[in-house]
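Inverse folding, one chain.
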């Protein structure tokens, strides 16, 4: 029974779901891509999207290789059940990813020179060439910002938020974050035993470009004594005083958890390699800077560990597998409802569609009065301020 219309497509009443739905035959072929830095849970989402689309709606799903680069170079393949079977617990992405290739600012080499051009029309024509009815983009703020531009260019886009940084607005959690926290917490636990045995200061640098969620969560979960996040510029004197005080009352070791984007009051972020494009600038080194300064001012042996890409590899945690599976399933549901230009978002325990445009307006930074910061301060953790 036709009960209405959405975007000129008749809506049918589904007695099982007790709601109006767009008939499945309206959407036949969709594609999905994973963009930005990889993280645990991407394969779980790919599996969930593909199986939900195939099993519930008889839709063909194409996987695009290497994020938006695959749409520029026309590299996509049909995903069969066997392609997405057995990948739930595997890290990385079977599709490959890229955090460099923005079709609106695509870098090509012409006669030995690097030229930046807009190849977004190529993407649009590949989308139509393959008769795609929608494109699911799985990514963080960079990927979703590009996805949003394609939505404005008329493509039917659905977003799924991922990043170990958890810095995307409008969603309480992105998948990948929980797994990265677990890796970092485990590393902090391991450093604890060696730090206390050798009476050393152990500095651990974790990822977190502009937002300190990962350092905060892993630092609190791992019992870090000092946690430095980009949102709270640190003072080295305050850190050293804290380390000394701990020594005075018998704690002859300290654990300092540093987000790679942390900076001193009035200071700058520390880069391994700077590039014209901010997303290509490689952060890293603040752990060594802080470690050297602590050793100089406290005269306590200080060692530095940079966790790096270990945080992005390996199997997703149970939390991320569940979130990824729910996100993938819900993404197909909102796609069937033609809520294009939206991404799925976790708010409390429920998943809702939210406009991608809203999610990418700004980064979700750690509020200074966040309950975890308050709780950490109350148990004696210093933020170096
Ligand atoms: O955005 C996720 C993230 O892991 C950041 O925390 C980090 O700064 C960046 O990616 C590193 O990217 P790449 O692997 O390209 O160096």
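Residues assigned per position:
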């Amino acid at each position: 029974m036709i009960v209405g219309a959405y975007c000129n497509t008749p809506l049918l009443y589904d007695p099982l779901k007790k709601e109006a739905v767009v008939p499945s035959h309206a959407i036949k072929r969709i594609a999905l891509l994973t963009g930005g830095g990889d993280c645990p849970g991407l394969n779980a989402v790919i599996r969930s999207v593909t199986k939900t689309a195939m099993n519930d709606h008889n839709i063909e799903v194409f996987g695009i290789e290497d994020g938006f680069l695959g749409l520029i170079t026309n590299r996509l393949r049909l995903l069969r059940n066997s392609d997405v079977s057995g990948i739930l617990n595997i890290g990385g992405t079977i599709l490959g990813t890229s955090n460099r290739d923005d079709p609106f600012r695509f870098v090509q080499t012409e006669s030995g020179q690097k030229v930046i051009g807009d190849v977004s029309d190529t993407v649009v024509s590949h989308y139509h060439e393959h008769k795609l009815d929608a494109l699911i983009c799985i990514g963080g703020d960079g990927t979703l910002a590009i996805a949003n531009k394609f939505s404005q260019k008329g493509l039917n886009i659905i977003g799924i938020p991922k990043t170990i940084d958890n810095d995307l607005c409008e969603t309480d959690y992105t998948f990948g974050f929980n797994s990265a926290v677990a890796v970092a917490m485990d590393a902090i636990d391991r450093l604890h035993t060696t730090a206390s045995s050798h009476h050393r200061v152990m500095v651990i640098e974790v990822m977190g470009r502009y937002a300190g969620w990962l350092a905060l969560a892993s630092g609190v979960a791992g019992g870090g004594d000092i946690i430095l996040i980009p949102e709270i510029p640190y003072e080295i004197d305050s850190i050293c005083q804290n380390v000394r005080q701990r020594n005075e009352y018998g704690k002859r070791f300290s654990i300092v958890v540093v987000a790679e984007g942390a900076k001193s009051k009035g200071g700058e972020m520390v880069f391994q390699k700077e590039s014209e494009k901010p997303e290509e600038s490689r952060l890293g080194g603040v752990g060594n800077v802080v470690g050297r300064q602590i050793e100089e001012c406290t005269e306590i042996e200080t060692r530095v560990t940079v966790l790096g890409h270990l945080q992005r590899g390996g199997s997703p945690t149970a939390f991320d597998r569940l979130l990824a599976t729910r996100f993938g399933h819900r993404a197909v549901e909102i796609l069937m409802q033609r809520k294009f230009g939206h991404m799925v978002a976790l708010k409390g325990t429920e998943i809702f569609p939210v406009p991608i445009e809203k999610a990418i307006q700004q980064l979700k930074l750690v509020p200074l009065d966040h309950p975890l910061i308050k709780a950490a301060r109350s148990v004696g953790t210093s933020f170096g301020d």
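The two ends are 64 Å apart (CA to CA). The domain at 2-175+316-348 is CATH 3.40.50.450 (Rossmann fold).
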